[in-house]
Amino acid sequence: MLEQEIQYSRSSRTEVWNKMKRQLDVMKAAAKRGTTGDGVFSPTGLTGGEAAKMRKYRESGQGLTDETVLYAIENSLATNEVNAAMGLICATPTAGSSGTIPGVLFALEKKRALTEDQMIAFLFCASAFGMVTANNAMIAGATGGCQAEVGSASGMAAAAAVEICGGTPLQAAEGFAMALSNLLGLVCDPVAGLVEIPCVKRNVVGSVNALAAADMALAGLENKIPADEVILAMKRIGKRLPAQLRETGLGGLAATPTGTKMKMKIFGQELDLNI
């Protein structure tokens, strides 16, 4: 991926590497901002402050899962809350799925004491799988549902986690395939058309799913359906999803009575369920 970017951008290795370092720095800043103090809150008030709550819960030692999973949840929430609060994030591969990869990356940084260079390498690996997905299917919720956003991000994170933890390229592909397979069919149904509910917490699912897929791949488990075929399956599923379930905010959770009330409160508009 690094070599391809050097050729495509006609930049030096150092320039390309430093550009990815800037993306990492943005991720770090967003995660820190979202977990500091009481956290951040969106202008609508629909989301915010929950990453900080997770940090306090993790620090209490009362978590049901281990530190790695809790840290992934915390940083995933933080990143998407910063996005909802109009803060600076790195789209991975989209703004709506921007918390999935940081959640995994910063959890592994803590668990494996990753160096900055290792974290940058993680992002290049994730980017490679994201590029293949984008070129052969889609990564936008508007065209393929949330499976294309959080699903793709989860696969990217799983593959990079496998690679950075010493797995083979084949194992990385298996991790990607398992993570994406687990989220096929996931719809995009943002309440009030905003990237808040359920988007923020769906990124948590993407992060935890990626860690599980990476562990399975490192243990030698196989997805049985190859990564390339999983990507094409996602594409076919995405094309069959109705418009109401592709980021329009007209179906799914957005069309529930509570979701409709939230939209009315924010925009003063009723939801036309006949569209």
TrEMBL record:
Superkingdom classification of source: Bacteria
Domain called Serine dehydratase-like alpha subunit: residue spans: 2-254
Cofactor(s) required for function per UniProt: [4Fe-4S] cluster
Pathway given in the UniProt record: Carbohydrate biosynthesis; gluconeogenesis
InterPro entries registered for this protein in UniProt: Fe-S_L-Ser, Ser_deHydtase-like_asu, Ser_deHydtase_asu
Single Gene Ontology MF annotation: metal ion binding
UniProt keyword 4Fe-4S, yes or no: yes
Catalytic function, reaction form: L-serine = pyruvate + NH4(+)
Keywords of this entry: 4Fe-4S, Gluconeogenesis, Iron, Iron-sulfur, Lyase, Metal-binding
GO biological process: gluconeogenesis
Family in the record: Belongs to the iron-sulfur dependent L-serine dehydratase family.
Record-given protein name: L-serine dehydratase
Organism of this sequence: Ligilactobacillus apodemi DSM 16634 = JCM 16172
